[in-house]
Design goal:
heterodimer; A: 260 residues; alpha/beta; Rossmann fold; 8 helices; 10 strands; B: 527 residues; alpha+beta; Alpha-Beta Plaits; Dna Ligase, domain 1; 4 domains; 6-stranded antiparallel barrel; 15 helices; 20 strands; 28% helix; extended
């Protein structure tokens, strides 16, 4: 931000604040659930060759879950279960959740559903979204099954919105087809941070996450990592910010004529 | 049992009726079908198969006269009596029959116990006056069993041991009228030592010592017997414990039989139904009846069986298992709806019966004050039920820890709502992957560093360049379980050039003498 001269100070300041706030509200960042509530339907595209997708999905889900304000009559600690639905193909390619490797909070709370067909997995996810005693639902489906068309994803979105249970659907080795998910991510592994005691060892996991389509956010790319119990996002590239600037340019243009 | 404190000896107040059915297996076989009564005068034996051929387990009167004995091999009995007739022996059925008999015997007292394999014990304290005294009670028992055509001997005594001894080894219908242990001893002193319910080898020892009657046990002094049997702690192996139980000096706990009724509702239909819509209506009615029945008992169903009787005699049974006890009619109807799709009604269904073969206590609870919270969404147990019905048994599960070092064994899948088994905590420095492959996949190592871990490997057709590594974590085979030739595993946590993190292991080490060059496997994907 350059130093403005005195005469143009109010106008410029107004311009800057407007742009900045528009830009800030448009960008996704961790801990957004405090203001906007949980992201109810997210799709995460991953490769079956890595565990990054499940790790990132859990990190995003836990971030939302920790940052959601507690209601008046709710319990202080949320001990609700987590439903993890996998099709058999996805389980064969990417393995099944392993209790000892799950985040500590979730170890005793995971309920696993193994579905033979994509239809069964969709049924299980939809029933899970209806359940008031679930914290969130994680689904894993491989490829682009016929059953998972736009109608099916719209059903999932509506159910999730009606009952307020978030769904994180991992699309393993899938193409970016039509979907009504509110946030669509593409996640790959990123080199991890240096481990605390052993410089040679892999450290805390990090993921390169690209938000390529979202309902209320500008697209962007971040490197996500979990430090302690907090999710942190750092900018992956500088030019990603420019894309966001362009995206909010419309707001600026609309205002400029009135000012001039 | 009453246990008189040391120093005090209150009068014995208990009265125990012991019933012995010496020929229960044979009587039960005879009543199985009407044509079996024709075998009354034929030499009939019941046989069980053993490793050495069929053995005789029960003998009829004619068979005994012909020389067959219990415990004899059938081949030996055949040499004595070639025209012997055989039938299979059914010990499980006998036990079930005895259980029913124990419940039936509660007509003579409020509390009865099984005395397997062929006896019953009934507590008749303060009961005999209803039958006109103890003689009247014994006569009533004899009459009732005679009506059921069961051979029986019974006796009444202040303790279970004394009643057992009398019923097995004294005249039928014996009664010990006295209340103190001297009275019991006087009445029983003439009985053989086998009346103490001892193991056969102990009876043999006593016989070799020259102790043949109960009265003789007291003549040689307690100390001598105590020394002889000081290492025997089990009552059936120690005559002194049995003697004390018989005289009522030490208590003898018995396990009573408590009858439990299964909640059952049924509908007989005037007009057989052939259409699904009507069937759904009847099932809904039954579910409501069942819910009311369960509510009255304060229970919830865990397993439900729906039987459909067709006009032509076919019976179809549909079974349903629930994740948690429930008595919600709507939920039950919904779950059954998925199971009734393939019912073949034939000429029509004339009777439906719904039975809760497994019910658990479920207290009546107050509904949520805020109705909205209750109506919003479904409960977890209902979710699990719906998923199980649609996806099949075992599709819904929960990972629970298991005491094992081998990673794939250290986790088991349990039904989701069962309480978690106790386990040792996880060690903080054991880093485990987020996901474990169903089977560890073999990787081809292209270039290994001298330290041992692979610098470059190929997995599922793609080459990975290892940049960071931690390990090895050595996991030895579980020698108490696995074969001796099983190789150990060295686990490494690695990260490749693009940040992908894996958990790989080498099976065995070079020169461990358990096979050739060790192979490498990829087992887990880290977050």
């Amino acid at each position: 931000m350059s130093q403005p001269d005195l005469s143009s100070l109010p106008t410029t300041a107004f311009e800057d604040v407007a742009t900045l706030s528009a830009r800030r509200s448009a960008r996704w960042r961790p801990g957004l659930a405090v203001q906007q509530g949980k992201a109810l339907h997210s799709e995460i595209f991953v490769s079956s060759r890595e565990g990054a997708g499940a790790g990132a999905a859990l990190a995003l889900a836990l971030d939302d879950w920790r940052n959601t304000p507690r209601g008046e009559g709710q319990e202080a600690e949320d001990r609700r279960s987590v439903l993890w639905v996998q099709t058999r193909d996805a389980a064969r390619l990417g393995g099944r959740p392993y209790r000892a490797g799950l985040p500590k909070d979730l170890q005793a709370r995971v309920i696993h559903v193994l579905a033979e067909k994509a239809e069964d997995a969709l049924f299980a996810m939809e029933e899970g979204l209806r359940c008031r005693e679930l914290a969130f639902v994680i689904g894993e489906m491989s490829g682009n099954p016929k059953a998972l068309d736009f109608t099916a994803s719209r059903r999932l979105t509506l159910t999730a919105q009606k009952h307020g249970v978030p769904l994180f659907l991992l699309r393993v080795d899938a193409g970016r087809d039509l979907s009504s998910a509110r946030m669509r991510w593409e996640v790959t592994s990123a080199p991890s941070s240096t481990a605390e005691w052993n410089a040679q060892a892999p450290g805390e996991p990090a993921w390169k996450a690209e938000l390529f389509r979202a309902c209320s956010h500008a697209p962007g790319e971040w490197v996500l990592a979990e430090t302690g119990t907090r999710l942190t996002a750092s900018k992956a590239r500088e030019d990603a910010d420019r894309a966001v600037a362009n995206w909010t340019a419309g707001l600026q243009h609309r205002r400029t004529p009135r000012r001039a | 049992m009453n246990a008189p404190a040391a120093g005090l000896s209150p009068p014995q107040t208990r009265r125990i009726l012991s019933i012995w059915l010496p020929a229960m297996a044979m009587d039960r076989w005879r009543q199985g079908a009407s044509e079996r009564r024709e075998f009354d005068d034929k030499p009939l034996v019941l046989i069980a198969d053993t490793a050495h051929g069929p053995r005789i387990e029960a003998v009829g009167r004619a068979g005994a006269a012909a020389g067959a004995r219990v415990g004899m091999m059938l081949a030996d009995a055949r040499t004595l009596c070639p025209q012997i007739v055989t039938a299979p022996y059914d010990p499980a059925g006998d036990l079930a029959f005895l259980e029913k008999l124990a419940v039936w015997a509660q007509r003579w007292g409020p509390w009865s116990a099984m005395d397997a394999p062929d006896g019953l014990l009934v507590d008749v304290t303060a009961v005999p006056h209803l039958f006109g005294g103890e003689e009247g009670l014994v006569a009533d028992v004899a009459q009732a069993f005679a009506k059921r055509e069961l051979t029986m001997r019974c006796a009444i005594a202040p303790t279970a041991g004394a009643a057992w001894a009398l019923s097995h080894h004294a005249a039928p219908g014996s009664i010990i009228g006295g209340r103190g242990d001297e009275d019991i001893m006087r009445a029983l002193s003439g009985l053989p030592v086998a009346a103490l319910r001892l193991d056969q080898d102990v009876v043999t020892v006593l016989r070799r010592l020259g102790l043949k009657q109960l009265g003789e046990l007291t003549t040689i002094g307690r100390d001598a017997i105590q020394r002889r049997f000081r290492n025997r702690k089990s009552p059936a192996a120690n005559p002194l414990i049995r003697l004390d139980q018989l005289l009522g000096r030490v208590p003898e706990p018995l396990l009573p039989v408590v009858p439990q009724q299964m909640p059952l509702v049924q509908r007989r239909l005037l007009e057989p139904i052939r259409h699904r819509q009507l069937l759904d209506q009847v099932v809904a009615d039954l579910a409501e009846d069942m819910a009311r029945e369960l509510e009255g008992r304060g229970e919830g169903a865990r397993r439900l069986e729906l039987g459909l009787w067709r006009v032509d005699g076919e019976v179809t049974v549909r079974r349903l298992e629930l994740a948690a006890a429930t008595r919600e009619a709507a939920h039950i109807v919904r779950l059954f709806a998925a199971k009734l799709d393939d019912i073949d009604a034939g000429f029509g269904i004339e009777m439906l019966r719904l039975r809760a073969s497994w019910a658990e206590p479920l207290a009546l609870e107050q509904g949520d004050i805020e109705a909205a919270a209750e109506n919003h969404g479904i409960a977890l147990s209902a979710l699990v039920d719906r998923l199980t019905v649609r996806l099949g048994e075992g599709a819904v599960s929960r990972p629970v820890p298991f005491a094992s070092h081998i990673p794939e064994r250290a986790q088991r899948w349990h039904p989701p709502l069962e309480p978690e088994p106790v386990s040792q905590g996880q060690l903080a420095f054991h880093k485990r992957p987020l996901k474990l492959l169903d089977r560890a996949e073999k990787i081809a190592v292209l270039y290994a560093t001298p330290d041992g871990y692979p610098q470059r490997f190929r997995w599922r057709g793609e080459v990975h360049e290892v940049t960071r590594v931690e390990g090895p974590e050595r996991i030895a085979p579980e020698w108490w379980r696995e074969r001796g030739a099983t190789r150990l595993r060295d686990y490494y946590r690695i990260e490749d050039q693009r940040g992908r993190r894996y958990w790989i292991y080498r099976l065995g080490i070079v020169g461990d003498g358990r096979g050739g060059a060790p192979d490498w496997y990829l087992q887990g994907l880290c977050a």
